[in-house]
Amino acid sequence: MKVIVIGTGYVGLVTGACLAEVGTEVVCVDVNRTKIRNLEQGILPIYEPGLEEIVTRNAANGRLSFSTNLAAVIPGAAVAFIAVGTPPGEDGSADLQYVLQVAKEIGQSMTDYLVVVTKSTVPVGTAVKVNREIKQALQHRDTLLDYDVASNPEFLKEGAAVQDFLKPDRIVVGVNSDRSKEVLEQLYRPFLLNGRPIIFMDIASAEMTKYAANAMLATKISFINDIANLCDLVGADVNMVRKGIGSDARIGTSFIYPGIGYGGSCFPKDVKALVKTGKEYGHTLRILEAVEAVNNDQKLVLFDKIRNHYDGELAGVTFGIWGLSFKPGTDDMREAASLVLISALLEAGAIVRVFDPVAMEEAKHTLGDSVVWCEDMYHAVEGADAVALVTEWNDFRLPDWSRMKGVVVFDGRNIYDLPYLKKKGIVAYGIGTTQPN
Ligand code: NAD
Ligand code: UGA
């Protein structure tokens, strides 16, 4: 089966590479010529563990190729995935211009029956718009071609994208014809051999499932962050509370890790977009409005602790920042909490020294020369008064504290053993842990 994936970003490239890995012939298409030229030379646009290996292998065996010319590669394809960005518009709603542009281009170039699948995260009703674009483009060509539109939201996480795609918890597919259902069932068969389910449903429900999933996960995070902040006030330890509640299978252990707020290209924009969809239908999603408000405050929780510790006098105080990306395993800086903290520190007159194992290049686009770029984690705390652990990369898990005499520790991800640090005479703060000092 031949498949076209349009949009070669996090989702498109992982989708294309993983489909090729199980035997499908895939062409990844993008408007960004540099990206495609680099990919043809084996240079990836993103850092994602395991991705380079399968891209290189499948490009070499001829199953995976790259193009900027959709019309040239679409003949013979059974499926076209739309995997372009859906960034937030000014009012918070998902901007569908890229998705609809691609739908139009598909209509202008398709040559045979095709299943057009939206993989981008899109609001309910988008498949109808995609269908309209294709139909209009075909009418312009005076062509009668059969096609189906389907919805197949993607649930992969950055940093674990390849594994998530190859071994999904489930695959959700919204269809409105038996023909498209059969094509997608066959395409995904290799991923379902170990009993993983493919869940077919109507298209609107599939579109909604994606937002509901991200909104639920964001809710868990804001909930535990709210509880963590209360733990700080009452003198409880949220690490214990997390274990205590997580062992109840109905609650579960995942996505209840407190921190400095969720970031990334998805939760913030998808929560906003779902709230906006609610408003369009006259329905206020009150829980999600609170989830977003809690998260915005949480991005400053470490700064508040820092300000309290220094009695508001931050001018000239030097901070080492460990980790910049919005989570470990990626160089993605979109909506990273580090940016909020760093900007608050700089505004207060502090000196900021930063290190991230992977995201330094990406972060330079935003931070420029406002911070000191360091060569490693210890260089970042050289001469520093304090260190803020922002992204819990493995590299930061067991520091040599003897190299950091007198440095105050602000742990934004609760990865350090605060009582142990206290015993060693190190002043340290966590999120929602009983204040040790
Ligand atoms: P991205 O910004 O990394 O990549 C989008 C790509 O689309 C870019 O390379 C861009 O050049 C290309 N593009 C734009 N217009 C095009 C056109 N007309 N023709 C061809 N290519 C075009 O985006 P992403 O992070 O991969 O996200 C894509 C979608 O998937 C979004 O809707 C997002 O919400 C959703 N999603 C993302 C993730 C994730 O972890 N990043 C996970 C699940 C779902
Ligand atoms: C998230 C979802 O997990 C994916 O299922 C989804 O496909 C994707 O969004 C998307 O729609 O694009 P991602 O944003 O890559 O994936 O990363 P997550 O692991 O979900 O982390 C998101 C943010 O939440 C990070 O800033 C992370 O630090 C934070 N987080 C996560 C917490 O603060 N606590 C937790 O317990 C878990």
UniProtKB/TrEMBL annotation:
It comes from the Bacteria. NAD(+) binds at D30, K35, T86, T121, E158, K269, R334. GO terms for biological process: polysaccharide biosynthetic process; UDP-glucuronate biosynthetic process. Pfam families: UDPG_MGDP_dh, UDPG_MGDP_dh_C, UDPG_MGDP_dh_N. One of its GO terms (molecular function) is UDP-glucose 6-dehydrogenase activity. Its EC number is 1.1.1.22. Residues 320-418 form the UDP-glucose/GDP-mannose dehydrogenase C-terminal domain. The active site is at C266. SMART domains: UDPG_MGDP_dh_C (SM00984). Pathway: Nucleotide-sugar biosynthesis; UDP-alpha-D-glucuronate biosynthesis; UDP-alpha-D-glucuronate from UDP-alpha-D-glucose: step 1/1. Keywords: NAD, Oxidoreductase. Substrate binds at F155, L156, K157, E158, K210, F255, I256, Y257, P258, G259, G263, K327. SUPFAM superfamilies: 6-phosphogluconate dehydrogenase C-terminal domain-like (SSF48179), NAD(P)-binding Rossmann-fold domains (SSF51735), UDP-glucose/GDP-mannose dehydrogenase C-terminal domain (SSF52413). It catalyses: UDP-alpha-D-glucose + 2 NAD(+) + H2O = UDP-alpha-D-glucuronate + 2 NADH + 3 H(+). Catalyzes the conversion of UDP-glucose into UDP-glucuronate, one of the precursors of teichuronic acid. This is UDP-glucose 6-dehydrogenase. It comes from Chitinophaga sancti.
